[in-house]
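FOLDING PROBLEM:
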Amino acid sequence: MVAASSKWGFFKLVDHGVPSEIVENMKARLNEMFDLPMEEKLKGARSATMPLGYCATNPDYGKNLPWAEILQLLQSPQQVLGFAKKAWTNGRLKSVIHRAVVNKEKSRLSIAYFLSPALSTIIDSPPELLKDPNTDPPINRKYVPFTWADFRKELLIQKRVIGKTALDRYLISP
């Protein structure tokens, strides 16, 4: 996973041990939810005070399929905190731009799981990632420390500018 994330920024996990019945049940429940009438789905819509729940990029789509429908749920911040310490990699692991292909005739179901720490969590490379076992001097730190809240704010401001990422704001030197 580290090699794939370092080179491509993406990988597909197979032979993960999750029984196929659970995977198929998840797909069936999501398809049932997305097949509901729009007025029903909008009862669970995201809002300014609750940024989780249902949203569609084009809720007034009529007979056309919406470009994307999303159901965003939250995991416990306590679950994430322990993990938050493979995650701050000093630029070692890549993140890819999402490039899903849209099909006007047929819907596609993707299920992704993203970990997000508490907003106050400080993002900083741990000392062990600033060492290279093949070299003597430590690796230079690439980013100044920042909070997850600051980073999320940058994400909303930047809106996927081509060739730039919100992380660029925190680079020590380009």
